[in-house]
Amino acid sequence: MSGVSSRPLKVILPDSELPRHWYNALADLPSPLEPVLSPATLQPVTAEELGRIFPPALLEQEMSTERFIPIPDPVREAYLAFRPTPLYRARRLEESLGTPARIYYKYEGVSPSGSHKTNTALPQAYYNREAGIRRLATETGAGQWGSALSMACRQFGLGCTVYMVRVSYEQKPYRRILMHAYGAEVLASPSERTLAGRQTLARNPDSPGSLGIAISEAVEDAASHDDTNYALGSVLNHVLLHQTVIGQEARAQLSLVGEYPDVVIGCFGGGSNFAGLALPFLADKAAGKEVRLVAVEPSACPSLTRGAYAYDYGDTAGLTPIMRMYTLGHGFVPPGIHAGGLRYHGASPLVSRLRHDGLVEAVAHHQSEVFTSAIAFTRAEGILPAPESAHAIHQAVVEARQAAEEGRERVILFNLSGHGHFDLAAYEAYLGGKLQDYVQSDEELAQGLAALPQVAAG
């Protein structure tokens, strides 16, 4: 065999090639990010304020502009249980699409919790344990992040409380059971446990919840207990930093087979999934390399594609610092789509800046077409993807079909960030013709943006 067909279907890096550093994209921004503001003073937030819910090491990473930050040995040892993860060539999918494009995917579903979220859960648990913290409080949408943090807390000897968005709590009981199996406490959000939850339920007893509401509850929990810190699975710089092991490995794996991507694709909710794969290619792009970085979000929660680039709270109750980002408004409650991990009103300030500066692209798709591509992928490649990951798959299919129409080769890389074994109810709804697509009107989106904090952007 020769030519394209001779390239392997699976590329594995040896353990010795596991990255020893995380890549910090803040070092390669043309100019610094706008300051994060205190919700109390509307002035730049202080380390003392953030130190009430985060350990010092993570605060240092959040603000660092060093290009490479060493991965501690205990975290690398924990990574080695499942990393480096495999890179696959989706040749059967290519054949089914009749495309000259070569499609590769980085598969993060081999982690113990089944998704890429483990990459940041492990260091967050480690740094909190080193700081003397005994418990972590967090939110979760579809349950991938809650599962990952529950597992990481168990490994590093911490307690874990998870506020799970109510619609996902009810749609995805097996994620909840997995968290319980790791020893975590799991509450449907909004809950009666916190003031933020009780206030939400008083306004709407049937609230489906949102990541913004669940974040409010977790932050309130952490801030009111001296032995507890807050852990976040997306959005913040240190979270995106930890995920860059994905893209670093993918670059090395593609190099082994003599490839470089024309387009890098990741689904987008808060930013960790997309950023983990795409950011290591950012320096190449800044140096003049022609590579497109595409973030894919649901049409039902289109922060990057239809949101405002403005200062906003990261949570619904206004307890978190105020960040400049693409946002639909902190009060926005998205419809109960099955990609629960993408139901967030805002976007990572770092990715938002890259989007605003034209360094990354953003597209949005309906969940019905996303599931159509997910099923096509499953039948071709044999892996059932998480609904979130299926957004990246669908965009890869769009790119591959375009390559076929144009009759030219293209190398497509996407992040298959987790398996869908706990999402079978979503696939049952799709196969039974019961999925609904949601598109908000401009008027509805304007209502969500009406309550943005009155902060002058620099």
What's the topology here?
Elements: E1 10-11, E2 21-23, H1 47-50, H2 56-63, E3 68-70, H3 73-79, E4 87-89, H4 91-97, E5 102-107, H5 118-130, E6 135-140, H6 144-155, E7 159-165, H7 166-171, H8 173-181, E8 185-189, H9 195-203, H10 211-223, E9 228-230, H11 237-243, H12 245-256, E10 263-267, H13 272-278, H14 282-286, E11 292-298, H15 303-306, E12 308-313, E13 322-327, H16 349-356, E14 361-365, H17 367-381, H18 387-406, E15 411-416, H19 424-431, H20 442-449
Structure summary:
This protein is α/β, with parallel strands linked by helices and 458 residues long. The chain has helices at 47-50, 56-63, 73-79, 91-97, 118-130, 144-155, 166-171, 173-181, 195-203, 211-223, 237-243, 245-256, 272-278, 282-286, 303-306, 349-356, 367-381, 387-406, 424-431, 442-449, and strands at 10-11, 21-23, 68-70, 87-89, 102-107, 135-140, 159-165, 185-189, 228-230, 263-267, 292-298, 308-313, 322-327, 361-365, 411-416. A hairpin with an 8-residue loop joins strand 12 and strand 13 (322-327).
Question: Could you explain the architecture of this structure?
Answer:
It contains 20 helices and 15 strands. It is an alpha/beta fold and 458 residues long. It has a domain at 7-18 and 72-114 and 238-441: Rossmann fold, CATH 3.40.50. A seven-stranded mixed sheet has the order 1-4-5-15-10-11-14, with helices on both faces. Strands 8-7-6-9 form a four-stranded parallel sheet, with helices on both faces. It has a two-stranded antiparallel ribbon with strand order 2-3.
